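User: structure tokens for this one?
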Amino acid sequence: MKKLIFGLLSFSILLANAQQPIFFEYRDASKPNEVLKLEGYLYEPINYNGKTILMSHGSTGGKKENISESIKYLRIGKMVTQEGYRMVTYMRKGRGQSEGQFIEESGKCDRTSLNTEVGDAYPQMQQVIEQVRSRFSAEKLILMGHSRGGFLSTHFAAKNPDKVLASINFAGVWSAFCENRNNGFSHDALNEAASKFKNNYWAYFENDSYFAINTFNDPHYEWISMTAAKHGITFKKFPQNGMPDGHSTPTWKPETWQADVVILPFCKGAGSRNVKQP
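Assistant:
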């Protein structure tokens, strides 16, 4: 009997942590009659704490084979649901199984091109956020993102503070390899975002190639930590934790930052109008 109860309990935990495929609709302003289906995944906790996280992915890293990869964030999903959070992920158009043309990475470094890229990604996040808020009766979301997803999370929070409980930015940057060629596009955007939204948590990781001297040019995060301090937001540098490149640490080894992020004071505020399971 004890074995049966233990087995049922273990099965329930697995079900709670397992990802469930969901989809979102995206309408491009230039093509209002065309509806694209964006791929996503839902992670539901057993004991919901009333907070919903939207996790946003990064770039392809310049690798074409990564365009078709569906990023599910299984490790992060399992971890945050055990803490009571609901987590939702989505893939921007043309990535993974999401419909539409992938045009977000132009390969150009001028500011006009990078602004166009951000302008392509931003309304997708905006529409997904509105659908998540409506579907799960969530007044405010916790935005969490890695690399470009971290950049987008803090960027959106600065523009829409009424819809965001907190922004958690893991190694956020838009196009690190262009930074020395456009007079600091990401530097300026991160500085502006930090000045406008205070419930920001910036987590960066040792030996991240995206922030080396020949890329973002802040290998020890002097500029990022100074910017965070100037605007009164939280910054922390974490160890590489055995990964070949620190840029992969937050997604492949989320236990590196677990103890810090899940207990953040601003993640404990009111985030949902209805804490019942959907």
